[in-house]
Amino acid sequence: MPNFSVNVPQLSSLYSTPKVKRGGTTRMNLCADQVFDKMLLWRGMATKMKFPSCPAAELSDFRRSNKRRSSRRMVSCRAAGADGGRVAVGDDVFSVTTSSKYEVDYLGQSTKGDLNLKLDPLQSFGDGQATLEGPIEEVARTEAQAAENLIRELGIQGPFSAQHSPRGIFCSRTLNLRSISAIGYDMDYTLMHYNVMAWEGKAYDYCMENLKSMGFPVDGLAFDPELVIRGLMIDKEKGNLVKADRFGYVKRAMHGTNMLSNKAVSEIYGRELVDLRNQSRWEFLNTFFSVSEALAYAQMVDRLDDGCISADLGTLDYKGLYKAVAKALFRAHVEGQLKSEIMSKPELFVEPDPELPLALLDQKEAGKKLLLITNSDYHYTDKMMKHSFNKFLPNDMDWRDLFDMVIVSARKPEFFQMSHPLYEVVTGEGLMRPCFKAETGGLYSGGSAQMIESSLNVHGDEILYVGDHIYTDVSVSKVHLRWRTALICRELEEEYKALIGSRGHREELIELINQKEVVGDLFNQLRLALQRRSKGRPAQTLAATNLDDQELTETMQKLLIVMQRLDDKIGLMLESDGELFNKRWGFLSRAGLWDKSHLMRQIEKYADIYTSRVSNFLNYTPFMYFRSQEQSLAHDSPLPDAGMEN
């Protein structure tokens, strides 16, 4: 078996490198496991390059009824001894934890897929064992520093820098990617990103044409995606679009296309919370596909309020108007005109990502079973995947070669909740025949998630599903099947940049709020002293009791003027907070200065990890252990020093 070489003397020379100091403290990135994971990945790539005759998928005509190799390859590498000689290590040294022998680690994650040493760890390195002896705290500090330097020397983007970038993968719930046996992908806006102006603009055009044919006045209306962002809710009873915080309190609202004042928002929604379970009233904008519908609805609300809608259409309220808009857009999708136009010129609508197929190739070669589960039909799926994938795959691979199973017309979310008839697609024209059991390498229509679990012999948290729709892809698969989940949210890249650009604005705003709190605290104390004085009682302290009446009144007057001016300034700055992302709605993930948006709460609740695009997995490895960050509580900061709490 081919070997991958690592020069151990070179690593040893790194041990003497001074520790990196950040802010007066030692910063140690525990990334030795990421270095090792990258070596394993490179070894697999090198093996494939050196041995092009290694087993590859054989395709028979259209059906490509190949059987993927399921046996796990053992990793082999060479380590150099202290004398510079080379010592071979491989199958006799490493073993992989199987699904029948896994344990659960201290973070509650399965150890399936972890690499283990068969030999005594210290015997594996001979003369090098001295570097691994001693207190583990000291050994870890040295090895982590060496690993960090090696990552930098090899030109690898480490996990620390990858996470702190617009294209990081962010973790809500700890996920050991090594324990994942299968990864399923949605297609639209997940494996394939559309140009929103082109795709949603075209959907909007067809929707307007259908509304016009139904008798609605649409002349003079135009597609403006800046009016709407993902994560808003349509209030079908009041004709509003609203943005709520994580608790469901409405923070911003728009009636038709006109933003409402804070006072109007308070008067309308001050006594109620957004409850997405009430589907007759609320419609959550889960994905980019919702943009054209929400925009068309907002514009038609304006027309309804202006009395422009003909009485021939009957008596319409805001809820009835929403049904009409939804029907018009549904016709655009169902009648096939929209997708036919996109299929005829995919280059106008799709933004290819050359790195994406390579990310999936890494996962497949690491032993993951890859699945495509999409609601799109076969013809559309095949055309768009060929356009987006084939030109970026090596060795004349076809997009089908990446996937162990493809499911089209899946009918999500029902796909995750119940069973539907399963059909096998058997010809290039999309001819299907009934099928009762799915097999590896097959192309199917319909079926169910339970069928996939049974066919692949993987279940529950052994499967990671990746999609862009909070409900259809992420929530339902987690709630009903306990699959692990990843959300794709392309807007994260722009939001990350907007947050950086707004840093100075937010720092100034927070400073003003802190000053208001200090001034306000003094004002409140003086107000209490005045209240007690008026009742003939002493103030809080002797000094406060002895304050001259005039001095007390003048100080309170001055403080009140300062606070009122601060309120005016803070109010204007809060209204403009987030305008670098969207001038009307602010940041995607935030509601107000301090709190998370309702969308962000949904992401944290249902998505174990989230990122802007699938190709971001290239910055990590198929063996990555994603650890969630510490969650702060209101009483966490600031904490007193030890011994001062009393």
Automatic annotation (TrEMBL):
- One family from Pfam that matches here is 5_nucleotid
Write the record's keywords in alphabetical order, separated by commas: Hydrolase, Magnesium, Metal-binding
Please give the CDD domains that the UniProt record associates with this protein.
HAD_cN-II (cd07522)
Does Thylakoid appear among the keywords? no
Q: Does the keyword Ribonucleoprotein apply?
A: no
User: Which family does the entry's similarity section mention?
Assistant: Belongs to the 5'(3')-deoxyribonucleotidase family.
Which NCBIfam families is this protein grouped with? HAD-IG-Ncltidse
Write the protein's name.
5'-nucleotidase domain-containing protein 4-like
Which organism was this protein described from? Camelina sativa
Q: What gene is behind this protein?
A: LOC104723235
